[in-house]
Amino acid sequence: MRPGVRIGVDVGKARIGVARSDFHGMLAMPVETVKRGEGDIRAILAHVTDVDAVEIVVGLPLSLSGAETASTADAREFAGRIAQASPSARVRLVDERLSTVSAQRALHASGRTTRNSRGVIDQVAAVIILQHALDFERSGGTPPGALLVPDEGSE
Predict the structure, then answer these.
(1) pLDDT band at 153, cuts 50/70/90?
(2) What is the distance of C-alpha 43 from the center of its chain?
(3) How far apart are CA 106 and CA 95, in angstroms?
(4) What is the mean pLDDT of residues 148-154?
(5) Is residue 135's pLDDT more than 90?
(6) Could you confirm whether domain 6-143 is CATH 3.30.420.140?
(7) Model pTM greater than 0.85?
């Protein structure tokens, strides 16, 4: 497992969930829900700077069949903007199928309703995305997803 803190990002149309890992990449934890729009990239990069993150893991919402959707294109574009703006942290796109559904189920199981948990759902989804990426790397020894190269798209 590569050392260093990672930031997890769940890109939504209205909100962006942000999570972070510990330095050793064992555990993902919620950080914040950022309102989508002006200043959103700056807010995410502030977290990257605060924890000296080495990588930003952005969830790529594919359909259940694995096909790309309008949300996939939006997440790719958003991740590209992060990669352009981040001078030090690498950006990786990882499959995030069902992360929001899993987050809603987890919150419902804890007694929270979707209505009173909208902002928290995005953070939990970011935690799920990041934790899956951490677990994948720890079990397989290879980084998760696809590295996004600024100006060149993903590999």
Answers:
(1) very low
(2) 14
(3) 19
(4) 64
(5) yes
(6) yes
(7) yes
